[in-house]
DNA sequence: CGATCACTTGAACACAGTCAACTAAGGTGG
DNA sequence: CCACCTTAGTTGACTGTGTTCAAGTGATCG
């Protein structure tokens, strides 16, 4: 069991990929950085998600805690051993990687072709949907990451994220009781903006 | 064995994913489309690449031939049967999906954070690198897709693709003997622009 | 209570998108 | 064989949107 304070690094781009992790609490961001500091967050990992399943010998991305997080660590032999004992585990892990790939394709569509409003709408619905599986309310979502993180996930600047959220608030589509709390007022509108390909992945 | 003329569809977004394909000749584009026609190409599949490995029951993207193409088709039972006979095949297929995921992460970095010049440079080097494995010259690359296809792959308009290529030509970085033929004149410059994370995937 | 960090908001700018015209290449049919 | 048509590519002018730069507000924590 590993505990990580917000901002702490689990591993860095280029580190040996000796372990696979399962998030049990908190939020972990996976990111890639160019030499001049430009950053792309490739995913926010929530409880239940695996980290490092896709990596070969070396991690191609960094993993850092966004909020206080806990993770289970598995080394390769232990994982192989477990796969032998638990029937269907291998298939489950394979399915997880496939789901990640599907999600990556959706994100490519978002990054390449969606407007800031559409990006934010898609992001909010995705996050709310994933949290809903753990009993959270479907009509609101807590953002434990900063505007900068969201921007680096959606291919926007933090200013554009802020402006877009506040414009949606002004338009009566969402409410922002606090900077980290988003309430969906017109879910149909948000869903229309998102045009989500994803039909709610099971998990 | 399936033959596809340029522009023909192998399968569409939403079709049942009953088969897995291996490209043996030509180029196939995988794309996702929003209701208003905006399109994102998630990948160009070249000889040796598998299509449909990542799909669940239904394809989340369409597959169309870019150039005259040939593919081998496998249904799920045949694939399972083959996996039992050929040792290491299952691992190979799993590795392919992981590589695809890695490539998808790189593409997210490209789409979210790279400039048009950097996008084009990355694209050219990637394509040349993949073709090199089949004996093509490493200092040039043939583009069998249109400027529009390239734009939809890189999150740009076709005009920006054209302008960027011609500006790189004017700058003496590349030569364009024809619209479909790119010659690398200053490979160091192109590599610098690309800042490729990818250390040449084996295959 | 002061310092820090996140967020918001405004103003100006720049860059890629849009619209449009034109050129080039390839294919078809008279 | 040439004329025509279609499709792809190039190039220019203009526009608009998201970025950049900057200032100011608000919340949290030692």
Helix-strand blueprint:
Two copies of one chain form a homodimer.
Chain A: E1 2-4, E2 9-11, E3 19-25, E4 28-33, E5 39-45, E6 50-51, E7 62-65, E8 69-75, H1 76-85, H2 89-113, H3 116-132, E9 140-142, H4 147-154, H5 158-170, E10 174-178, E11 181-184, H6 187-194
Antiparallel strand pairs in A: 1-8, 2-7, 3-6, 3-8, 4-5, 4-7, 9-11, 10-11
Helix pairs in contact in A: 3-6, 4-5
Chain A binds a DNA duplex (30 and 30 nucleotides) through helix 5.
Task: Give a verbal description of the structure.
Two copies of one chain form a homodimer. By secondary structure, chain A is an alpha+beta fold. Chain A has two domains: 2-104, Jelly Rolls (Sandwich), CATH 2.60.120; 114-195, Winged helix-like DNA-binding domain superfamily/Winged helix DNA-binding domain (Arc Repressor Mutant, subunit A), CATH 1.10.10. Helix content of chain A is 40%, strand content 25%. Chain A has six helices and eleven strands. In chain A, the strands form three sheets. Chain A has a four-stranded antiparallel β-sheet. The first copy, chain A, has a four-stranded antiparallel β-sheet with strand order 2-7-4-5. In chain A, strand 10 (174-178) and strand 11 form a beta hairpin. In chain A, helix 3 (116-132) crosses helix 6 (187-194) and helix 4 (147-154) crosses helix 5 (158-170). The longest helix of chain A has 25 residues, at 89-113. Chain A is globular. The model of chain A is unreliable at 198-203 (pLDDT under 50). Chain A binds a DNA duplex (30 and 30 nucleotides) through helix 5.
């Amino acid at each position: 069991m590993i505990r990580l304070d917000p901002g702490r690094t689990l591993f860095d781009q280029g580190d040996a990929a000796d372990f696979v992790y399962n998030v049990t609490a908190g939020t972990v961001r996976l990111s890639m950085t160019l030499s001049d500091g430009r950053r792309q967050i490739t995913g926010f990992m929530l409880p239940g998600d695996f980290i490092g399943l896709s990596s070969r010998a070396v991690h191609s991305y960094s993993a850092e805690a966004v909020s206080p997080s806990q993770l289970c660590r598995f080394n390769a032999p232990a994982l192989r051993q477990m796969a032998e004992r638990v029937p269907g585990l291998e298939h489950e892990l394979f399915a997880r990687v496939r789901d990640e790939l599907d999600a990556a394709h959706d994100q490519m569509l978002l990054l390449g072709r969606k407007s800031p409003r559409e990006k934010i709408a898609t992001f909010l619905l995705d996050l709310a949907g994933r949290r809903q599986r753990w009993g959270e309310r479907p009509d609101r979502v807590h953002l434990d990451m900063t505007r900068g993180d969201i921007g680096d996930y959606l291919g926007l600047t933090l200013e554009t994220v802020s402006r877009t959220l506040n414009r949606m608030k002004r338009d009566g589509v969402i409410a922002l009781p606090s900077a980290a709390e988003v309430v969906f007022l017109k879910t149909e509108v948000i869903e229309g903006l998102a045009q989500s390909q994803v039909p709610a992945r099971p998990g």
